[in-house]
Amino acid sequence: MSICDRAFQMPILQKDNFKELFDKINANGIFVAAYHAQMLGYAVIYANDLEYYEGFITLIAVRPEYWGQHIGTSILSVCCGIARERKMQRLRLEVRKENERAAVFYRKNGFIYEKQCSEDSIYMIKEL
User: Fold this and answer.
1) What is the pTM (predicted TM-score) of this model?
2) How far apart are CA 42 and CA 110, in angstroms?
3) In which residue ranges of the chain is pLDDT below 50?
């Protein structure tokens, strides 16, 4: 994961809640990776909400040197497939407002603005 950590403005491995985040991923998350002799990118999706049938992508990253090669699109497509297999009707994610590159990527892949999440982030959602 440290290879792709540069894709985040605040590297995941440097966050104060790193252990808590990975314990949660280990308990309920599904790890999706793009690999070709080395890790190119990854995502973590939760698809276990049987009340509202909404999946959530909690992490998605591609090594910066592989940006623009459709690796993120492939990873996102796999996440959508997993969510559909698990009967999710929507897929949600959080994106930081200053990360316009990510927001454009998500819009190109069918996500739309849903609502404000925090002072510096928004939720985007995609109907499956």
Assistant:
1) 0.80
2) 19
3) 1-2, 4-5, 8
